[in-house]
Each structure stands twice: as structure tokens, then as C-alpha cells.
Amino acid sequence: MTFVSDLDPQALWRHFDHILTIPRGSGEEGAMRAYVLAVAERAGCAHRTDGVGNVVVSKPASAGRSGQATTILQSHLDMVNEKNSATVHDFGKDPIRPVRDGAFLRADGTTLGSDNGIGVAAMLAVLEDKTLAHGPLELLFTVDEERGLTGASGLEAGLLSGARLINLDSEEEGILTVGCAGGANSELVLDLTSAPVAAGSTALRITLAGLKGGHSGVDIHLQRGNALKLLARAVLAGGSTPRFAEFGGGDKTNAIPREASALVVVPAAESAAFRAAVEAEITAIGDEYRPAEPGFTGTVTPADAPAAAWDAATSTLVLRLANALPHGVLAMSYDIPGLVETSTNLARIRVEADGKLHLIASNRSSVASALTYTRRRVRAIGELAGAQVTELDGYPGWKPNVHSPLLEIVKKAHVEALGFEPKVGAIHAGLECGIIGEKRPGLDMISIGPTIQFPHSPDERVEIDTVGRFWGLLTKTLAALA
Fold first, then answer.
1. What is the mean pLDDT of the chain?
2. CA distances from 381 to 122, 186, 226, 256, 308 (A)
3. Which residues, in sequence order, are bridge partners of residue 462?
4. Quick one: residue 245, left, alpha or beta (phi over 0 = left, psi -120 to 50 = alpha)?
């Protein structure tokens, strides 16, 4: 056994150790689903799969508890596949390589997948444990959460019968989550017009890397650098708009871009001044962001001149649009101190197969009207640049219910299991509770979890001891509910 499965509680960590070997990027959860079904079969539990691939496993109540109400436990099977550019890793076949880092567990140059692999492992441990006291359980494993909660959106409401739900996708010990933000992406598409590059032109490759990135909801308030925004800023400082042969970066729509690059073409007579100005701006950016981004690097290097590049008008539009689009916290909550209310993340820019430049803005808010305005603002900026703007389907927020009976039970269980009073709050990230609650009105819901830091980036790590305490809280809650 590796050291992961030797950790306590072993029943949970043993499953997580195996989960690390299973490819499970969003939309590719087949092998992970098969593992869940195999565990359910071994445990002798009935299971159902809906049309989009969500799985519900039913576990009968422990002895003497069958008269109690059914409780739903819920986690998602997929993870965000992100890696450092220097890391050699194929998420489609290579296992995640865990690393013990003091009090934390992280991965070697990739995301760890503790979001939401720890929740899944906990549910599988509950499924197999014959010693736990609990009422009737429905264990809901959803798919494709990370790309927009589409598994929960496609969930067949009749698949569930429980009246209360415990989501295991929170990421901070000591906080009981009772609400979350809603979100929706905006896609901007620009036509690209190219023209030949004049003989004697100078080509330069501008590359920004070493940023921390992170979850565009959980980490947006940390004021980390967005590689796309900083790249646009650096090029803008060059004094004259170059022609672009390439401009892009970012990948997952729910992750802050960590790396970006551009291939630019400038007249030979202007190249030295342009390069010096861009390098000076990169130095200034490094100085500004050093407290939050100590690993930031930026380089400007000579490159082979391409035969063609975007024409001057197109290049100007791209540069202005990338600089104009907002990124970061737009508003803080008036009701919950310290909670981000509204934000937007310029998540990705790249040329797609249609030969056009696609830009994705990921917008979030716990206030529906503020989310609508943010999307309108992004649309207005995009249309000023002549982009075609599509507002993609979003997901609802989850309105807090501070009078929840489930909340009171979990608060008491928290004191008994962890020895201190928990905080009650909401998060700026999206949780599937909002969607599931819409499908089953009146469902009493809460979200708990261990401490997971920097999800959706290769810096992701889970605090090991909090996993044991999370397990203690979960099992104590199940016993109290029974």
C-alpha cells in the first residue's frame, strides 16, 4: 500500500488512493462510475443510473433505524484536469502522483482531485461500513460538475426520494455551508482577418507563466494574477499595437488562467523599443504581484517570423478587447461580511477549429440581478469590438435557510465531533445544491467538507487531519439523523 491508504481513516483513504488511479476529467467519468457501481455491488446495494450518467445507490438503514427519513449524500465524480506546463502527465491514462507535504497532501505538478474525490471516497466508505448507525440512505454521485454542473442539471428528479441532503463538496473545515452563488458563462467570438507579413519584420514570443491560478469562485478574492489580462497589459505597454500571429491562454472555464502567450510581429525598426517597453511592464507586473504571485515569470524572446499574421485592425480589436474585459471581484456582499457577491473571470482565449478567436468569461453572483447585469456588461464590451456574444446556460444559486432543521442537527453534531461551534455561511463558488433544490422543492440541504486549498490548480492540496475530522462529523451526523 502507498502512504495514502495508510492514512486515517483508512476506509476513506483506501478509496481515495484507488480514485487517484482512475481518469475522471469532466465528461469522462465512465471508469469512475464503474468503480462506484462495483463497490455498490459488493455491498449488496441497489443502484440506478439516469440518462446523463448520474448514479444513485440505496443503502438500507442500520438495524432498528428503518423508520427514519431518508438522507441523501451527494458528491460529484469528475475533477478539473490542470497541470504545470513542465509536467509530463496524460490525464487520460496516468495516475495522479500524490505527495505528502507536511500537514497536506498534494499532487506532483497536477491537480490532486480532492475536489470532490474526498467526498466520493467518504460516500464509498459509508456504503461499505456495516458498523455505522444511520437511517435509510441514498448516495448520489453526479457527473460533469466542473464544466457547469450539467450532471445535476440533467438529474432525473424521480431518482431521489430523500427529504434532506448533505453535500460533501465544501472545502473549509469548521464552516457549514447553506448557500452558494449562481453562475453563467459568456462566449465572445471574433472573426480573424490575416495578411502576409512584410519581409524584414521581427517576430517576438511573449510568455507569462508561474502564476498560481486557482478556482475562479473560491480564490477570486485573493487578487491573483490572470495570465490573459496581464499578457494584454504587457503588450499594450509596447506603445504601438503589433500584429498578432497568436494570442491565447487559459483552459478550464472555472479556473483562473495561469499561463498565456502571444506571437507578435513588429517592424524591425520598432522591435527594440517595443521589446524593451514590454519587458519593463513585465518587471512592473512582477513587482506589483510579488506578494500574491512569487513564482511569476515573463519572457520576451525572438521567434521565427510567420508567413502571415492577423491584420492591424484585427490585432487592435483583440488587444483592446482583452484589456477591456473585466476580471476579478466586482462586488462584496452587503449581507454576509467577507463574502464575494459578484465576480467575473476571463477564463480562456484561443482560436478554435472554426478559425475564429473565442473568449470565455465566467460570471458568478449570489444575486440574480447582479449576475444578469454582469453578463450584459460583458456583452456590451464584446459588441463594441464587433464580437458575436452568446450567453451560455447557467446554474442557479442556493438561497440560505438559516432556520433549517438539518442545520441545527449538524451544528450539534459538529460540537460533539470536533469540540467547537461551527460557523454558518455561504460560498461564492457554485454547488449542485441550487440545481437539486430546484428539482426537489423543499429539500433541506447543507454542505460540509475538509479543508481543501487552491482547487482547480496544480497547487491544490487537502489538509490531511481535517479529512479524519470530516469523517467524524459525517458519521456523527448520520447517527444523529437516525
1. 95
2. 45, 12, 19, 20, 28
3. 105, 452
4. alpha
C-alpha cell at 202: 521581427
Going 12 to 15 to 17 to 19, the CA torsion angle's sign is negative
The partner residues of 263 in beta bridges, in order of sequence, read: 205, 246
State what percent of residues in the chain have pLDDT above 70: 100
The secondary structure element, H or E, covering residue 426 is strand 423-427
Print burial letters for 247-286: b (CB count within 10 Å at least 16), e (below 16).
bbbbbbbbbbbbbbbbbbbbeeeebeebbebbbebbeebb
191 given a catalytic annotation: no
| Helices H / strands E in the chain, number of each | 12, 23
Q: Which of 17, 29, 82, 145 is catalytic?
A: 145
Length of the chain: 482
Other beta carbons within 10 Å of 442: 7
What does the buried/exposed string (b/e) look like for 45-84 if buried means 16 or more CB atoms within 10 Å of the residue's CB? bebebbeebbbbbbbebbeebeeeebbbbbbbbbbbbbbb
Q: Which of 17, 29, 78, 432 is catalytic?
A: 78
Map residue 126 onto helix, strand or coil. Answer: helix
Write down the residue that cell numbers 452568446 correspond to: 390
Q: Could you give the CA distance from residue 188 to residue 200 in angstroms, rounded to a whole number?
A: 34
> How far is the C-alpha of 196 from the C-alpha of 266, rounded, in Å?
13
Q: Please, how many CA atoms are within 13 Å of residue 52, restricted to the half-sphere of its CB? A: 20
Residue 459 DSSP symbol: T
pLDDT at 310 over 80: yes
- CA pair distance 153, 233, nearest whole angstrom: 37
Burial of 224 (0-12, 13-18, 19+ CB in 10 A): buried
Query: pLDDT for 7-58, tens place per residue?
Result: 999 999 999 999 999 999 999 999 999 999 999 999 999 999 999 999 999 9
Annotated active-site residue 293? The verdict is no
Cell of 311: 491584420
